[in-house]
């Protein structure tokens, strides 16, 4: 068990169940489109990972984890990242949405 160091069996069980129920969208083509568009926006703006990290108050490894799909992004983080890149979050979302298929399984 990956969470054998957790002493409370209820917490360990929730972690194991949560890990086995990882949302499919993290590994989907749709999420890959999201990441590809996010990275392209950053690079297109001439912003390095280090600079973006500085702008959003995080470290560069955080940005790398996000861009490599290891660290999932929530809506508020998306907003902050877009602003850090220097792009309107609504415009970035529109660019992402225009590339997504009509049907996506979650």
Would you give an account of this structure?
The protein is an all-alpha fold and 106 residues long. 62% of the residues lie in helices and 0% in strands. The longest helix has 16 residues, at 29-44. The radius of gyration is 16 Å and the shape is globular.
Short recap of the structure:
The protein is mainly α and 106 residues long. It is built from 6 helices and no strands.
Average pLDDT number: 85
Largest sheet: none
Helix amount, in percent? 55-70%
Overall geometry comes to globular
Task: Spell the H/E element sequence.
Answer: HHHHHH
Find the count of extended strands (DSSP E, 2+ residues). Answer: 0
Weakly predicted, low-confidence segments: none
Radius of gyration: 16 Å
Number of helices: 6
Give the distance, in angstroms, between the N- and C-terminal Cα atoms: 26 Å
Percent strand equals under 5%
Instruction: Report the structural category.
Output: mainly alpha
How would you describe this structure in keywords?
single chain; 106 residues; mainly alpha
Describe the secondary structure blueprint for this structure.
Elements: H1 9-20, H2 29-44, H3 49-56, H4 60-67, H5 75-85, H6 89-99
């Amino acid at each position: 068990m990956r969470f054998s160091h957790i002493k409370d069996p209820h917490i360990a069980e929730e972690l194991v169940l949560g890990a086995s129920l990882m949302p499919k969208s993290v590994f989907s083509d749709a999420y890959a489109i999201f990441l590809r568009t996010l990275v392209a926006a950053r690079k297109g703006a001439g912003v390095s990972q280090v600079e973006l990290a500085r702008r959003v108050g995080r470290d560069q490894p955080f940005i790398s984890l996000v861009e490599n799909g290891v660290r999932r992004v929530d809506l508020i983080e998306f907003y902050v990242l877009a602003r850090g890149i220097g792009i309107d979050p609504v415009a970035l979302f529109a660019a992402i949405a225009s590339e997504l298929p009509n049907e996506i399984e979650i």
